[in-house]
Amino acid sequence: MHYAILPLLASLATSSVAAETVLGAYIFSRHGDRTAKSTPPANLTDLGYQEVYTSGTYYRNRYISSDATRKIWGMNTDLVKLSQLTASAPIDNVLQNSAGGFLQGLYPPVGATLGTDTLRNGTSVTSPLNGFQLIPLQVVTSGTNSEDSAWLQGSTGCANAAISSNDYFTSSSYLTTYNNTLDFYKGVSPMVNRTFTSSQTTFQNAYTIFDLLNVASIHNSSSNFQSADLLTNETFYQLRTLADQHEWNLAYNESEPIRAVTGSIIASQVTSALNTTISGGFKNKLNIQFGAYAGMMSYFGLANLTAASSDFYGVPDYASSLVWELVTNATFNSSSLPSTNDISVRFYFHNGTTSNTSVPTEFPLFGTGVSPLPWTQFVSGMEAFAINSQAAWCKACGNSTGTCSSEALGLSSGSSSNSSSGSGSSSSGSGGMSKAVAGVIGAMVTLAVILGLELLVMLVGGLRVVSKKRLGGTGAATGNAATGTKA
To answer: pLDDT tier at 149 (50, 70, 90 boundaries)?
Structure first.
């Protein structure tokens, strides 16, 4: 995203009453600045490390510190209590390292005083690195190596999602933009011809071309940035606008919800985690997950956040974060906790690194124009598109082998994964999709993997298109033919 987040709609009540208490929160964050996707393996840069650490520090000041602005009820202030915190990231260098940097800001070293234990024999042992706190990171294999994948659906393992996204490349919307930008990308070619051939330098590779030049504009010296004079502010803006359009249409389509499968999984994980916070007596208070921008964009579409601001059509910047807060105005104590009837959810988004001078903005979910949403209304809205079990995922994705086989799903020979619902809450043992289930899902093989590899080859191998016109707003005005929306 390349904008300043708009203020919340005037009709939306944003101020918290004095009695409001934050009971828990779920943070979904993008990684920090990294090297380019087109030159794998991608790695978190020092700038990226600083970005996520700064964001982690902000959320410490928001939720954890003794003088936190929205302190989570009962959250440990200095020494981390692992039962209160769950952190996760896929198997990916950039995402896991980003999570680690964020957690260092969230719970920094505690110094020699708090970081020293006295043993029975009287010996004092001080923790290394000035009381550095070790916080385990759960592994989510859904999204494995997503930062090395040029294909947006390349790490989902969902066959139907990949097919749906691939259909965009034959749509009239795509073909119109592709043809109208031939000359524009021809003019860009001198800046990227060490990485992309002339036939690859087209709208087909809009995001990876922008990504390469974005990285170069941040890190490359003039001597290492070929034809840098061609990257004017206007050209860079058009590259970014085209990348936004390209990725939005691969991440979401109103008439084909399966295209946004990652957003459906995020919805299930968030709802399940917050429900666990409530049902567990608010012991597990803070959940943090790191993921790629694709999941964010999919969720934006499914949750109709574009009704609150058209800015949600854009690719979120590095270190962007989504936050769902559990809040209550009820009077309660540890022996008389608030019921779900007294609990609501506030949703916040921040584009880029959060800090004390750049804070998250509250937005209404599901096109309601209302925030916070009562818990039951929030759950109903999320479950309208959440995928809550492995069997439901298999059915929605059209996968039937590997971990989607009847044997793997524990079905009888006469059963099929198609008997499972594709969305909604499960009141049985399947419950909401856990991170472990999402990990299993991310390991889908056979057809989904083969198809994903074929699509990756097609995209990176690219059509040869040499640009013919200077775009001048075409990319921003051309939308998804199925939805009529503008990217």
So the answer is: low
* Total domains in the fold of the chain: 1
Give the CA diameter of the chain.
79
| Residue 155 located in a structural domain | no
- For 52, the domain range is 21-107+130-148+270-383
In the structure encoding, which two tokens stand for residue 79, read together?
Answer: 């020494």
Task: Work out the average pLDDT over 131-149.
Answer: 78
In a domain, 116, yes or no: no
The predicted-structure confidence for 316-362, as pLDDT tens digits, reads as follows: 999 999 999 999 999 998 889 999 999 999 999 999 999 999 999 99
Backbone angles phi, psi at 486, to 5 degrees: -105, 140
Cβ atoms of 155 and 438 within 8 Å: the answer is no
* pLDDT given for residue 152 in this prediction: 59
- In terms of phi and psi (left: phi > 0; alpha: psi -120 to 50; beta: otherwise), the region of 148 is alpha
Q: Residue 283 falls within a domain, yes or no?
A: yes
pLDDT(309) > 90? yes
Taking the C-alpha atoms of residue 342 and residue 372, their distance in angstroms, rounded to an integer, is: 12
Q: What CATH number corresponds to the domain at position 358? A: 3.40.50.1240
**Structure tokens of 464?**
């040869």
Q: For residues 399 and 391, what is the distance between their CA atoms, to the nearest angstrom?
A: 10
pLDDT of residue 19: 78
- Per the domain annotation, does 404 fall within a domain? no
| Average pLDDT value over all residues in the chain | 83
In degrees and rounded to multiples of 5, residue 131 shows phi and psi of: 80, 30
Mean pLDDT in residue range 49-57:
98
Of 149-153, 182-186, 208-212, minimum mean pLDDT range? 149-153
Cα(427)–Cα(430) distance, integer angstroms: 7
Percent over 90 (pLDDT), the chain:
68
Q: What is the pLDDT of residue 430?
A: 34
**Residue 367 pLDDT greater than 60, yes or no:** yes
